[in-house]
């Protein structure tokens, strides 16, 4: 099992439910995180994102002012903030396939259904830290590679061995930040 030194990571938790923020914060502190920032809606979440420059954003879907999908889209705008590559973990009580696809298409990195478990949250964080997905930039999308399986995309912007209409960017900032803290056991 790979362990992460969470004390080297900054998290931003955005949820309009104070109880849910407390649960996530408690789990993160339990993993060893020292820096957990919080916001209660999409607008204050975007402000906190700019102010604290978190390494990982954990956001709810349904929030006032603007929701987690709108927030993810704003964060993913290249050039509009200091880190459009930040991993975004979406929390929601809705697990319909259409919602998962919509979150993926807005640039969400990982999806986690409520109620959450300590193990499931840890696995999502481990995934974004140890195995960051490359980022794709096309005319209509900027975000983590949406393909997880081996099925080939057959659309007009289909990538061909890294070429084609899509620009692919490999990222490893979180792994580099904490790689001295990664160890197998």
Automatic annotation (TrEMBL):
Residues modified as 4-aspartylphosphate: 60
InterPro entries: CheY-like_superfamily (IPR011006), Sig_transdc_resp-reg_receiver (IPR001789), ST_Response_Regulator (IPR052048)
Region (Disordered): 146-168
Keyword Phosphoprotein in annotation: yes
Transmembrane feature ranges: none
UniProt keyword list: Phosphoprotein
SMART domains xrefs: REC
GO BP, one annotated term: phosphorelay signal transduction system
Domain Response regulatory as annotated: residue spans: 10-129
Gene3D superfamilies assigned to the protein according to its UniProt record, in alphabetical order: 3.40.50.2300
PANTHER family linked: TWO-COMPONENT RESPONSE REGULATOR, TWO-COMPONENT RESPONSE REGULATOR ARR22
The name this protein goes by in its record: Response regulator
Lineage start: Bacteria, Pseudomonadati, Pseudomonadota, Alphaproteobacteria, Rhodobacterales
